[in-house]
Amino acid sequence: MQFDQRAVGETIRDLRRAKGVSQDVLSGLAGIARTHLTMIENGSKQANFETIWKLAYALDMRPSELVAEVERTVQKEEL
Questions:
Q1: Predicted model pTM
Q2: Fewer beta carbons under 10 A from the terminal one: N or C of the chain?
Q3: Which of 77, 42, 36 is CA-nearest to residue 55?
Q4: 3-40 pLDDT, tens per residue?
Q5: How far, in Å, CA of 54 to CA of 79, rounded?
Q6: CA separation for the pair 53, 63 (Å, rounded)
Q7: What does each C-alpha distance from 61 to 40, 44, 53 come to in angstroms?
Q8: Burial group, residue 3, by CB count within 10 angstroms (0-12, 13-18, 19+)
């Protein structure tokens, strides 16, 4: 399985939308700039581990759960 930063962004966007949260709200909860979140969701910027950690907790999940969701997204796209 290859790392896919686009899948990271897609997963975060899908989780955010499923919770009914805007980019402004999620970025505020995570303590990152909204523009940073936008670039992550679009796949144009790679999130470092600290950012993944912050976003996971802002989405009310553990970082390992977020990574597992990204893995599922990558596996779906590989099929």
A1: 0.92
A2: C
A3: 36
A4: 788 999 999 999 999 999 999 999 999 999 999 999 99
A5: 30
A6: 5
A7: 18, 24, 9
A8: exposed
CA gap 20, 47 in Å, rounded: 22
Residue 78 pLDDT > 80, yes or no? no
Angle formed at CA 8 by CA 60 and CA 53, multiple of 5 degrees: 40
Distance between first and last Cα of the chain: 12
User: In this structure, are residues 66 and 13 in contact, taking their beta carbons and an 8 Å threshold?
Assistant: no
Would residue 4 be called left, alpha or beta, if left means φ above 0 and alpha means ψ between -120 and 50 degrees?
Answer: beta
Positive or negative torsion for Cα 28, 32, 36, 42: negative
The pLDDT score that the predictor gives to residue 72 is: 94
